């Protein structure tokens, strides 16, 4: 409890939450990030529908030891979400990620957006996939990846 506030201390049922932390911009932006993640989780079945099945999670890139970038996708009956995690302080203006389906992809959330107190290195424009296989996937997208970023992409079904 209270994790969405960015607490400094462990939760204690005998003490109230430190609501005053929301007076600080970093804590307020962290709360917004958690709210946005919760909204995405509740609206996209890929993040919860197949939690207990083998088809709900697939690694894309799991063995990138040199750059420490990992990617996977989650699958639901109505949506597929690509997740890319950069675990280092290095940014990439161009980082290619294998994707299972052709099409146009849009950034759903990026932990480095300025509203979350990040560096704002994001993918504001839609990204068209190419037919070049990568990471044992039949297609790829070219992304921008900020240091220590967690980014989710979804295929744009309106195109």
The proportion of residues in beta strands is 25-35%
Please indicate the count of domains: 2
Per CATH, the superfamily of the largest domain is Golgi alpha-mannosidase II
CATH class identity of the largest domain = Mainly Beta
Please report the number of helical segments. Answer: 1
Return the CATH architecture of the largest domain: Sandwich
Biggest sheet: strands, sense, closure?
A: 6 strands, antiparallel
Tell me the span between the first and last alpha carbons: 40 Å
Please write the string of helix (H) and strand (E) elements: HEEEEEEEE
Helix share of residues?
A: 10-25%
CATH topology grouping of the largest domain: Immunoglobulin-like
Q: Mean of the pLDDT scores?
A: 92
Oligomer: single chain
By helix and strand content, what is the structural category?
mainly beta
The best one-word shape is: globular
Based on CA atoms alone, the radius of gyration comes out at: 17 Å
Number of strands: 8
Strand order of the biggest β-sheet: 1-2-3-8-5-6
Low-pLDDT runs: none
């Amino acid at each position: 409890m209270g994790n969405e506030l960015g607490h400094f201390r462990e939760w204690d049922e005998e003490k109230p939450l430190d609501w005053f932390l929301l007076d600080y911009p970093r804590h307020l932006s962290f709360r917004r990030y958690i709210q946005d993640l919760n909204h995405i989780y509740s609206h996209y079945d890929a993040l919860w529908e197949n939690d207990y099945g083998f088809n709900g999670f697939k690694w894309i890139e799991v063995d990138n030891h040199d750059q420490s970038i990992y990617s996977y996708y989650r699958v639901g009956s109505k949506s597929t979400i690509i997740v890319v995690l950069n675990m280092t302080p290095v940014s990439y203006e161009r980082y290619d990620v294998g994707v299972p389906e052709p099409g146009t992809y849009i950034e759903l959330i990026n932990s480095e957006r300025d509203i979350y107190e990040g560096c704002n290195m994001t993918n504001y424009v839609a990204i068209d996939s190419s037919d070049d296989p990568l990471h044992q996937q039949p297609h790829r997208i070219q992304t921008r990846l900020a240091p220590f970023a967690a980014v989710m992409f979804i295929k744009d079904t309106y195109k």
